[in-house]
Design brief:
mainly beta; seven-stranded mixed sheet; four-stranded antiparallel sheet; 44% strand; globular
């Protein structure tokens, strides 16, 4: 397991942008972002694999969010554009020691390390 620390959350107006960063204490293979509204299940947002940097996105994120990683710095980023009030949630970084196939990357059970989360609020 690795320790994960998220940063970059905050308050933004609808249509605005935010960039989240997750710093890992060591090497991780598949890394992902999930989000959770109070009282709801944690849901998948985006994931990226180590090596070939293959990515996968939830439908709600496609075309607006971009996940990227820096393997030298052990960081993963989530660039969020055209934000909507429905994007308001606590965003969690997750990491796995396995390089998952694309269809498995959205399964939260596949991640053994989690950050504490960062709040993103989209409101005017």
């Amino acid at each position: 397991q690795v320790q994960l620390v998220e940063s970059g959350g905050g308050l933004v107006q609808p249509g605005g942008s935010l960039k989240l960063t997750c710093s890992a204490s060591g090497r991780a293979s598949t890394m992902a972002w999930f989000r959770q509204l109070r009282g709801k299940e944690r849901e998948f947002v985006a994931a990226i694999r180590r090596g070939d940097a293959k990515t996968t996105y939830a439908d709600a994120a496609k075309g607006r969010f971009t996940i990227s990683r820096d393997n030298i710095k052990n960081t993963v980023h989530l660039q969020m554009n055209s934000l909507k009030p429905d994007d308001t949630a606590v965003y969690f970084c997750a990491a796995s020691g396995s390089n998952w196939i694309l269809s498995a990357m959205s399964n939260k059970e596949g991640y053994e390390s989690w950050g504490q989360g960062t709040q993103v609020t989209v409101s005017s």
